[in-house]
Design a protein that fits this description.
The protein is an alpha+beta fold. It has four helices and five strands; from the N terminus they run E-H-H-H-H-E-E-E-E. The chain has a five-stranded mixed β-sheet.
Length: 100
């Protein structure tokens, strides 16, 4: 699938592990790059649901139309999809999501 990065910063962090590592730490940086590569390799949208480690899921409520991919326990990669292209929107910390 085609990938578009919403910001130059996200694209740079994908292309340069050191940039991503400085911003999010080594574990999140490594997973971010790996997850983007998996998304790029997907032939269709439904392929992502079939990969259990991604924990790919749609968001609800006012976030309808957005999807999340797990990076680590408290970080998610938020993406949107227009049918043919994934738009990499942001990396989001969800530590308060579970009441922590």
């Amino acid at each position: 699938m085609e990938i578009r990065f919403r910001t130059k910063k996200l694209e740079k962090q994908y292309l340069d592990y050191r940039e991503a590592s400085r911003a999010y730490g080594q574990q999140v940086a490594k997973r971010y790059i790996m997850r983007i590569n998996i998304i790029k390799a997907a032939k269709c949208f439904d392929d992502l649901y079939a990969i259990p480690t991604l924990k790919f899921h749609s968001l609800e409520g006012n976030r309808k139309g957005e999807f999340a991919v797990t990076l680590t326990g408290f970080y998610r990669l938020i993406i949107t999809n227009d049918g043919e292209t994934f738009d990499i929107a942001r990396i989001e910390e969800v530590s308060k999501h579970y009441g922590d």
